[in-house]
Please model this.
Amino acid sequence: MNSDIVARVIPCLDVTNGRVVKGVNFVDLRDAGDPVELAARYDMQGADELVFLDITASSDGRETMVDVVSRTAEQVFIPFTVGGGIREVADARKMLRAGADKVSVNTAAVQRPEVISDIAAEFGAQCVVCAIDAKWDASQNRWTVYLHGGRTATDLDAVQWAERAVSLGAGEILLTSMDRDGTRDGFDIALTKAVSSAVNVPVIASGGVGNLQHLAEGVTEGGATGVLAASIFHFGDHTIAEAKDVMSAHGIRVRPVG
Amino acid sequence: MTARPRVAVLDYGIGNLRSAQKALERVGADAVLTQDATVVSAADAVVLPGVGAFGACMDALRDVQLETVTHDAVASGVPFLGICVGMQMLFDGSEEDPDARGLGIIPGQVKWIPSSVQRPQMQWNQLNIRRDEPMFSDLGEHPWMYFVHSLHGVPTDSDCVTATVQYGDTLNVAFRKGNVFATQFHPEKSATAGLGLLHNFVASVKS
Model:
């Protein structure tokens, strides 16, 4: 890896109706379910960026997310991305005006790829993250793109879709392995490597992190420049500082904590 | 009691401006997002943010009649800070959109960073401070700042470069010309170090 690259450690918060979904285990949080308080904590801990994934089903809940973003922007001074329910330029505008730095598109982009170019044309490619959920399909010898949290298969090849998304103006790929998500077995390195070699924009590896060694592998073996994790941080198993120490010990440049 | 310095953040409809406003408030300013010339001329300091493409930002700035307002603010001598594409717009022009005219406040051109590295540079990186500047006071020798950019400023007078980073090449990422400060990185997104820089900027307002 080029020595000028500095890898990013990115905690991800799943939010529904304005509350963090997975329980968190920071002992001294006033309100462990408040995404804003959790985000501020990660900023203080030395996280490089944050991702909020809004998994709210209802449109009322979506308005709640705008409020979360707005309150986060008052307290959190590192970049953050908002995903979930971004279907058109107006949705992106609302989140960016509220204080998000990037929006991620997933289902809407598969259904109508122009949403990527529409948002990029208005706000710049740097703020469009294409989130891709992929699962290995042995019969077709490829990773297939899935929607709706892995429930709905598409006919898209994940590597080809990543290339297309970048050509449409996505500035970053957030790549989640549906095979590994929740397993704690580590990233799907082959998938991560296939996508990171195919595109010239940053790839964030996601899905499967069970220990800090896994984060390092995402960068050294997978070619990702960002590593995303939820439970190992939320449950208090590890701090951001510990993650960066391990990555650093593997020769990865990181922004030191503190 | 000293009044909080009034900082006008120029609002011309582009992406996330609220972070810059909130970060300035955090470091003691009374910051407003505005496109009102009266508000800007009454401000103690002015910030020109920017994200996206050079030409689109210049067009948007002109569409809301903020080009002259920007020149007036710079000429008035108040501390002025350009951030990211807001920094790039201070130059004469950019390789990104060769037909678009910049503000011409810092003579020089904005040029692509080397293609030997991933573009954009979307990461934290460590500054090499070239000049002892009040803007950098108390930030340490090599503060970490957050970058998202594919181009960097190459001023005619290299003396106005106040900091560089290493990314494929030595890139110019902070500038000063008189009362005008400019950063390629996002201080409002650079945690403690970035807030420290904004604090220094707000503190430079003469009481």
